[in-house]
Amino acid sequence: MTPMTEDGMTTVAARLAEWAVAHRPDDDDLALAERSLRDTMAVTAAARGDALRPLTAHLGAAGRLAALGHVLDFDDLHMESTTHISTVCVPAVLGTPGEPGSVARAYLAAAGVMARLGTALGWEHYSSGWHATCAAGAPAAAAGAAVRLGLDAEGIARAMALAVPAAGGVQQAFGTAGKALQVGFAADAGVRAAHLAAAGATADPRALTQWLRLVGGDPDRVDTSGPAVPGGLAVKMFPCCYAMQRPISAVRELPAVRPDEVTSVVVRTPEGTTQPLIHHDPGTGLQAKFSLEYAVAAALLDGRPGFASFTDDAVRRPAARRLLSLVRIEHDAGGDQLLAGEVRLEVHRGGDVVRGALRFPPGSPSRPPDGPELSAKIADCAPDLAAEISTLTWSGAADFVRDRLPAAGPDPRRRGSAPADAPA
Q: Which class is domain 242-358?
C-alpha cells in the first residue's frame, strides 16, 4: 500500500487528490472554466506565427499547446499564487483522453490544485526567484490529467508525486524562449506522470510534501475549502507580464499627455510588485514584456499597448528609448503579490506635473472583464477565429485544437507523421 499519511496526518497529495475527486463544480466554477478556455485558445491562436513555434516541435502535445499559450504573456493569472493557471491546465486536460463530459471538471481539478499548491508555496517562493507557474504547474497538470484518465484519489496522489522532479523553473528565464518552454515542460511532465500512475507506477505521495517544504512552501497553507479556484483568475488586457498591467492602466487613466512633452516620470509602487520586471533597458520585444520602464513608454506612445508594441522594432523606436531613460522607479517597502498596495505616477512635462494612482487594473478579479472587453481581446488575438472562439465550449475544445491550431498539433518532424499544417 502506498503511504497516504505522514505523522498520522493525511499527506498534501492525498488531501488534494481527495478534493479533486470529490469536488463538484457549481455554476460559477463552470463559468470560470468556460471563460478560461476561450481566453487560453485566443492567446494560443495569436501565437500561431510566433518564432517559438518550431522549437515546440520538441515538446509533447500538452507542452506544445502550453508553451504557445504562454509565449505572448497574454494568458490568465491567479493572484494569490502568482501562477499562470490556464496555460498549464487547459493543455494538460485537452491532451489526455477521457470521457467528453469530464474535461471541464478535470480542468477545474487541475486549476484548483495549482491555485492551492501555489498559495502554499507563498510569496517567499516567488520573490526568491522561482517561476511558480512551473513549480505548482507540474503536479497540477498531473492531477488534471489523472482525473481525465479516471484515476481514483490514490492514483491522483501518485501522479502528483511522480511529477515532483519537474516542479521547478526560475525567473531568470523571463525575456527569453525559456520562460514559455519551461511552462511547456511542466504540462508535459504532468501528463506523463498521470499516464505512469495509470500504468501502475508506484510513488510515495509524501514526496509532494517533502518537495513543498524544500522549496520554501508550507503544507499547512493547503486549504481545500472554497470554490474551485479561490480568488478567481485575472484576465490580462495587454500582452505582457501581469506586473505591467497596473502601471499601463494607470498611465492610460491619466489626462492626455503628449509623449514629446514628457521630461521625467516617477513610478512609486511596493517593491514586491516589480519582482518579475528584470529588464530595465530592454533590447527585444520579449525583454520588453518584463520592463516597467517600457510599460510606461509604451502606454504613453501607443495608448493601448498591443502586439505591435512588443516587437523588437517597437522597443528600438527612438521615442521609446527616450522615454525609457526618463522613467525613475521608487519602491515602497514590502508587497506580497503583484497587486499589493497601489501604483502612483508623476509625469513631469516642463513645469507641470500630472499625477495618478491605481489599485486594481481592468481584468483583475476586482474589476473583471465584461463581455465586450473579452470579445475585443479575442478579436485582437485571432480575428479569423474570433466568432468560433467566442462560442467555444469544452465539448468542442479538442477538435478546435486539432483543426484550428495546427501549430500545436503533432510534431511534423517525427518520422511517419504528416506535417501538422499540411492539407488533408
A: alpha beta
